[in-house]
Amino acid sequence: MRTFCFVAADLVIGIPLGLGIALLLDKERKLRGVIFAVILFPYVLAPIVNSLIWKLIYEPNYGLLNGLLFQLGIIDKYIPWLSRPMLAIGMLIVANLWQGTPFAIVLFLAGIKSIPREEYEAASMDGASAIASFRFITLPHLLPIVYMNIVMKTILTFKLFDLVYALTGGGPGGSTTVVGILIYQESFEEMKFGTASAISYILLLLVLGLVFFYSRVFREEA
Prior knowledge:
Elements: H1 2-27, H2 32-44, H3 47-58, H4 64-71, H5 85-113, H6 117-125, H7 130-158, H8 162-167, H9 179-189, H10 193-221
């Protein structure tokens, strides 16, 4: 269930966020290169480096997040972000979105650049609004990119391990134990390699089933 929370957040928040940022970058002219480099920065870093950065940000005694919120007067005492079950899941989801959204931005930006500008010009001459142009021109052209994002994010998020292992190790009290952590615990801590293998095969079948479902939905949409 906890793994599904990460996958759902990546699909429901990460993909629309990536599309929105890609649309803004497509309009930006002056600082596009700088903004794109900053946005792409989390994606080019090694996952464990991203995890350690967020561990420093969430550190309860001298972390950046607590210090910033305290200075702004939003909180009156430091919060142990990774020591409370529900709060820890939310913080991990934020860190995962920061790490994974640039992938969606790059794909969407490439897709937007491939759309013929003549279609927008024709729509503008016909009096179509920006919303109508997005709905009837941009979105249909980007459907293959949306499908690719959904498939890739589902696969990558289901095998999430580095971030959770570095920040919480599955705690507190097992509240952030995703499938990747469970497989690791069963195999290398409990030495139950048969159980770990069974979980891995079930995960594979589940992801294959979801990918098949996505392909059927997008085939009908197309």
